[in-house]
Amino acid sequence: MGYVNRSITCSNNDGVQVTFGEREPSPFLLVEAEGCYAVDNNVTISENTMSDGGAYQGSVAKIRNIVLTLRDYLDNVYNRNLLNALFKSGEEGTLVFREYPNERKINYYVESITSSGEYGSRTYQVSLLCPDPFFYAMSDVTVYMAGWIADFEFPHEFLEEGEEFGYRSNTRMQTITNENAADSIGMEITIYSSGAVVNPSVVRVESDERLTLGTTSHPFVMEAGDRVRITTADNDKHVYLIRNGVETEVNEYLTEDSVFIQLMRGTNSIGYDSTSGTDAMEVHITYRMKYAGA
Which of 115, 133, 151 is the last residue of a domain? Predict the structure, then answer.
């Protein structure tokens, strides 16, 4: 395969959006995009004066610093104003990185804009800091367990003897494969109840981690029409009960050994259960792949 043209689209909450490409100024030429491919971690190692080497304690990804080098040739004043309108101080922006077949996005805050140039050409360097250093897929993926499956399409010819518009899938486990993305991908798990459900739980089989609501002495009971929404992303770990249109946080029902399960690299077998009423449960899992680099 030959050269693949990269492009970067930046946008802000005011609706200002500019695409920077490597082939033609539009109105800027993308000269360089440093920090998009980098993987930079803080590794913690403890040392013991009586032992050789050290002991690994853990590793976390550092804040990502993306530096865009841009060049323009005409309408310098207009282009400078456009950059200032796009890269607003103190507001979160979104960067979309496209390099076929990859298309991924990341949020940023503007650190600085510097410029230099001569003879009508201007070169700008835009430094962006990304508190969440991971790139994300452009859209969510939803997996259904024990839900209603549509079996009806248009155009359609109705049969005299009648036919089934859909059917209920009673699958109580789904396998999600994460081959290329990073570890610790948060999910939004929604449990729907068509009847009484007592102490529902969700499990990741490979790690034997389970999130359970309710105990024998302090049961959690879902009624027909209730929903439970569980979020497991970093900095967003909550459990909500939605009843009669009202959403209430119910983290107090979590058992002591509950874990906000996340998707890890490789195979993730996600299942569900309850003390009673399992057949009345319908479970949807929504997640978005995240990547260590563009």
Answer: 133
Count of other CB atoms within 10 angstroms of residue 91: 11
Domain count, the chain: 2
DSSP state of 129: E
| 2 falls within a domain | no
Burial of 294 (0-12, 13-18, 19+ CB in 10 A): buried
Query: Domain ends where: 98, 133, 168?
Result: 133
Per-residue pLDDT tens for 275-288? 999 999 999 999 99
**pTM for the structure as a whole:** 0.82
Average pLDDT of the chain? 89
Of 225, 258, 257, 263, nearest in space to 239 by CA? 258
Mean pLDDT of 233-243: 96
Q: In which domain, by residue range, is 41 found?
A: 7-133
Q: Is the dihedral of CA 204, 205, 210, 214 positive or negative?
A: positive
